[in-house]
Amino acid sequence: MRIVLKSTLSEETAHKVMRVLARISALATVLALAAPAGAADTIRLAVQKTGTFSWELAAIRSAGLDKEAGLALEVTELASTEAGKIAMRAGSADIILSDWLWVSRERRLGAKLTFYPYSSALGAVMVPASSPIKTLADLKGRKLAVAGGAIDKSWLLLQARMKQDGIDLKSEATIVYGAPPLIAAKALDGEMDASLNFWNFCAQLEAKGFRRLTGIEDILPKLGANGAVAAVGYVFDESWAASHKEAVARFIAMTRKAKELLATSDAAWDKVAPLTGTTDPALLKTYRDRYRDGIPRRSIDDEEKDARVLYRVLAEIGGRDLVGPAAELDPGTFYHAVPGD
């Protein structure tokens, strides 16, 4: 760099300026050499505060998997999954958790979102340990509480399975809808003969001695699926994924390591336990076991193939209120650009 000093500067002042500039140049060189070869890529996550994604993130941070992957995870905690969808639509989150039904519908509406499996853990029909209900057919004439509303996926799949046996459960049983915590509370109070709830609330009942009449995953083969299907996944915009391909690959590899850690190490759950809201050893064990059962282990092709089958079942039962105008899963719903898939 060439420096021209004005003639109005004295020789002594000019030398001082030169010494300062030399020091600045030397400092800049040192800082450049000390800087890492590449700064961590930032990924913005919108996470339900009470959801299991926070469990996975606790395992990631505890084991330093985010630093190992060269990722800086910016986490925004939200009150609900719907808030996550709003964050995604507003462009304030790069990745959220949702299901492939919503992703497919959003794609049909013009939002090019895409889905990568997170968990195949599904709900179950739960009954008290002493209940005379032994089979799904025994639900006829009973009072069944359903979490999530009339177009909840597990409820629709259960209806589809029962119709195969000639039973219209919606009209042949008394159905009560409610929020998952309320349904769990009413089941514990004995107000319902049976309940269909999300998997973590089923775990709470299971720890209290309730019996799993059937898990929704158990009925999927009868509906045409060849294995456990990941209903919930990481959701992100495909154009963002295309411009952050390496970061996305590292993110997915990082989460796989976290799941493997949680699948094989009971000690890893020590970091998760405070986030579950319980200190009950029986419930913590049930949470752990059910979480492990839901870890996806199949190829994306197999996941997508079964999702297409179940989508048709859900579209037939749930209609436009559930899937909109599309009778088929939208192409591109599943994200394939990951090595090994």
Radius of gyration, in Å, reads: 26 Å
Which second-level CATH architecture of the largest domain applies?
3-Layer(aba) Sandwich
| Large-scale geometry | globular
Average residue-wise pLDDT: 88
Task: Going across the biggest sheet, name each strand in turn.
Answer: 7-6-8-5-9
User: How many separate structural domains?
Assistant: 2
CATH homologous superfamily designation of the largest domain: Periplasmic binding protein-like II
Taking pLDDT < 50 over at least 5 consecutive residues as the criterion, the unreliable ranges are 1-37
Tell me the span between the first and last alpha carbons.
52 Å
Largest sheet: 5 strands, mixed
- The strand count comes to 10
- Strand share of the residues? 15-25%
Structural class label: alpha/beta
The CATH topology of the largest domain is what? D-Maltodextrin-Binding Protein, domain 2
Task: Provide the fold topology.
Elements: H1 11-34, E1 41-48, H2 53-63, H3 65-68, E2 71-78, H4 81-90, E3 96-99, H5 100-108, E4 113-119, E5 124-127, E6 143-147, H6 153-164, H7 169-172, E7 174-178, H8 180-188, E8 194-197, H9 199-207, E9 211-215, H10 216-219, E10 232-237, H11 238-243, H12 245-264, H13 269-272, H14 281-293, H15 300-318, H16 320-323
Parallel strand pairs: 1-2, 6-7, 6-8
Antiparallel strand pairs: 3-10, 4-10, 5-8, 5-9
Helix pairs in contact: 2-12, 6-15, 8-9, 9-14
